[in-house]
From TrEMBL:
SMART domains in UniProt: THUMP
Keywords tagged on the record: Methyltransferase, Transferase
Gene Ontology biological-process annotations: methylation
CDD domains recorded: THUMP_AdoMetMT
Keyword Phosphoprotein belongs to the record: no
Organism placement in taxonomy: Bacteria, Bacillati, Bacillota, Clostridia, Lachnospirales
Full protein name: Class I SAM-dependent RNA methyltransferase
Pfam families recorded: RlmL_1st, THUMP, UPF0020
Residue ranges occupied by any THUMP domain in the UniProt entry: 58-156
Length: 387
């Protein structure tokens, strides 16, 4: 089967998590750059990566790269790509997105129209036709220019992969599913440990954790653009990847995952989202303010995205809020806390310095992932480590 170079974009600062996921799926990583990981795989890999990877935004199939400092070089470089090997004569094709960093060519709309013209030129010659109906499957392109090197790739996913298909109702500042999954993977949480999100909003952290615990592939309940690409990816590959995903689900696990929010409407929405994801039986949602946070057991995990005052009038409540979070955490016995927030004074009001802190870009916003580590639980049987 033909091998492709596949590109998996991810949040800046989380490339190592993405790389580990790809290696765990069994593919060879060829390059790690800021915000994306490139790996080698065949048609089956396109299907499996879309269905199984939790932390990428989409899977792109790389079709070429070349240097271009002028629009003429962009035109010629694009025309030199063997488009007829990728796009059938009735295919619908366009440059859906162009981004440019540290490059001479930077106008997205010009890049898009010049590349489209070059593709048409190439395919006219290859197919011996002058007009393209474009009424078949869609082949949208994504193009990155970095230091005058143009990377051209086709988007196999369609809707961004954070759209798992379960979140119909969202709270006002939701964290994306892909980011929530990546942050969970950065913690030593395992399904046999307690997990509580005291600001659960639409339920993303608890739902992603429950899906991991049940070994449910994040792409099980949605469709992908490349399912229509019968010229490149046999239908059989999609069926086999979906069968594999279904076979791996462990529905009978028992976990202690809880989500609280002060707003009853939001708690109801979170429950509905969990039901849509098929994990409502694994999560306990409750209307409860953070001031009432408590848990009798030891060695649990707090993972949360608390408010950080996007509006000026909310900012004045933050010291009190973060002080409360810190006090309730201090009252828990031997727990660990993981907090993602854009609030710069988190440690000051939380009442202790984080053991680790990493910068993560959530969209364009700089946020911090504060990690307050608790002690490890004693090993339950000799020779087995519980992180």
């Amino acid at each position: 089967m033909e091998r492709f170079e596949l590109i998996a974009p991810c949040h800046f600062g989380l490339e190592a998590v993405m790389k580990r996921e790809i290696l765990d799926l069994g593919y060879e990583v060829s390059q790690v750059e800021d915000g994306r990981v490139t790996f080698i795989g065949d048609a089956e890999a396109v299907c499996r990566a879309n269905i199984f990877l939790r932390t990428t935004e989409r899977i792109l199939l790389k079709v070429g790269s070349f240097k271009a400092e002028t629009f003429e070089e962009l035109f010629q470089g694009t025309r030199a790509i063997p488009w007829e090997q990728y796009i059938p004569r009735d295919g619908k094709f366009w440059v859906a997105k162009a981004s440019s960093i540290k490059s001479r060519l930077f106008s997205p709309s010009d890049i898009q129209s010049i590349m489209k013209k070059a593709m048409v030129e190439r395919m006219k010659g290859a197919y011996g036709i002058t007009w393209f109906p474009e009424d078949g499957a869609s082949y949208p392109l994504r193009v990155f220019l970095y230091k005058d090197v143009v990377t051209v790739a086709m988007d196999t996913s369609g809707d961004s992969l954070h759209k798992r298909g379960y979140r119909t109702l969202t709270s006002k500042a939701p964290i994306t599913e892909t980011l929530a999954a990546a942050l969970l993977m950065l913690t030593p949480w395992k399904p046999d440990r307690i997990l509580v999100d005291p600001f659960c909003g639409s339920g993303t952290f608890p739902i992603e954790a429950a899906m991991m615990a049940a070994n449910m592939a994040p792409g099980m309940n949605r469709e992908f653009l490349a399912e229509e690409w019968k010229n490149l990816i046999p239908k059989k590959c999609w069926y086999e990847a979906m069968d594999e995903a279904n076979d791996l689900v462990k529905d009978d696990i028992s976990v202690d995952i809880q989500g609280y929010d002060i707003d009853g409407e939001i708690v109801r929405a979170a429950r509905a989202n969990a039901a849509a994801a098929g994990v409502d039986h694994l999560i306990h949602f409750q209307q409860r303010p953070v001031s009432q946070l408590s848990h009798p057991k030891k060695y649990g995990f707090l993972i949360t995205n608390p408010p950080y005052g996007e509006r000026i009038e909310d900012k004045k409540n933050l010291p009190e809020l973060y002080k409360t979070i810190g006090e309730r955490f201090a009252a828990l016995d031997s727990w660990s806390a993981y907090i993602i927030t854009a609030y710069e004074d988190t440690e000051r009001y939380f009442g202790r310095k984080a053991d680790k802190n990493r910068k993560i870009y959530n969209g364009m916003m700089k946020t911090y992932f504060y990690q307050f580590m608790g002690p490890k639980p004693p090993s339950r049987n000799p020779g087995r480590q519980n992180g």
